[in-house]
UniProtKB/TrEMBL annotation:
One Pfam family, short name: Glyoxalase
PROSITE patterns attached to this UniProt entry: GLYOXALASE_I_1 (PS00934), VOC (PS51819)
GO MF: dioxygenase activity; lactoylglutathione lyase activity; metal ion binding
Organism of origin: Halobacillus alkaliphilus
Highest taxon in the source lineage: Bacteria
Organism lineage string: Bacteria, Bacillati, Bacillota, Bacilli, Bacillales
First and last residue of the signal peptide: none
Keywords carried by this UniProt record: Dioxygenase, Metal-binding, Oxidoreductase
Name used for this protein in its record: Catechol 2,3-dioxygenase
Positions of the VOC domain: 12-128, 170-287
Length: 287
């Protein structure tokens, strides 16, 4: 894991906030299965971390909540980035031993595992290959969906047991369902300042800051013109983007306003809705 992509001058995802149907059940899943730890908890909300300090995920049970909707915009998955391949091997064995249904892939730039939480929210757990091994052509990075070398991953283990996620684990990226890629590109690139690193068959875009393979993924796999989920459905509540400094954030807000997107203050936070109804908190690293 190379921290250069998750510090100034990069803009990156800090935290993800989810709405869930049963808080107790979700806490058990995210601690026992995923390996996060609770650092704050109230009757209807919990904040989870890998290092005991930095919040990565917030789960909240609203007073009225319905199951996650299908064929809508919203969360495809959030992605937890591990520091190395050994850590991924430990997670892989732990999840397999528990009989968790998994997807897996080698993306050339990374190796990844995929699963869902009890509400059907998608989770990716991955490790990056060194950025010097990534292949770029005309500003686009080469990514694939190849089979994961599970045997090679298993060979990384030498009797080490899984003991939760490493403290160095961070939020690597978020991948969203959107209803229109052109509108999404307009918002995320022209407005927020991200660059396109991959365009897949006019159905998915991968966006980056500072040369990462992607901090944000966008797709129309739920259908072009898919409606947003109701606020009453389980799923993504909002996520936070961390800008390197106040000036960069203010410039992004100004560009969004010029494009017709209004940013609102909610609870002391600057919140903006993307064209598909996904809420984004615009914050500053270290604030």
């Amino acid at each position: 894991m190379e921290s250069v992509f998750f510090q100034a001058p990069s803009t990156y995802v800090g935290t993800v906030e989810l709405k869930v149907q049963e808080l107790t059940k979700s806490i058990q899943f995210y601690t026992d299965v995923i390996g996060l730890q609770v650092i704050e908890q109230s009757e209807y909300k919990a904040v989870l971390s890998a290092d005991g300090t930095r919040a990565l995920l917030t789960i909240e049970q609203p007073s009225f909540i319905q199951p996650k909707a299908k064929a809508t915009t919203g969360l495809y998955h959030f992605a937890l980035l591990l520091p190395d391949r050994l850590s991924l091997a430990k997670v892989f064995k732990h999840l397999a031993d528990r009989g968790i249904r998994l997807g897996a892939a080698d993306h050339l730039v990374s190796e990844a595992l995929y699963l869902n939480d009890p509400d059907g929210n998608g989770i990716e757990i991955y490790r990056d290959r060194p950025s010097k091994t990534w292949t770029w052509h005309n500003g686009k990075v080469t990514m694939t969906v190849d089979p994961l070398d599970s045997k090679g991953l298993h060979k990384e283990l030498s009797g080490q047991d899984w003991q939760g996620l490493p403290t160095e684990t961070i939020m690597g990226h978020i991948h969203l369902h959107v209803h229109d890629l052109d509108q999404a590109r307009h918002f995320y690139c022209d407005g927020l300042g991200f660059e396109i690193t991959s365009d897949q068959l006019n159905q998915a875009l991968f966006l980056s800051s500072n040369g990462y393979h992607h901090h944000i993924g966008l797709n129309t796999w739920q259908g072009t013109n898919a409606p947003p989920a109701s606020e009453e459905n389980a799923g993504l509540k909002q996520y936070t983007l961390l800008f390197p400094n106040q000036a960069k954030r203010d410039q992004a807000i100004q560009r969004l306003q010029q494009l017709g997107y209004g940013a609102d203050m909610q609870g002391g936070q600057t919140v903006v809705s993307d064209p598909s109804g996904n809420l984004v908190i615009l914050a500053v690293h270290g604030s």
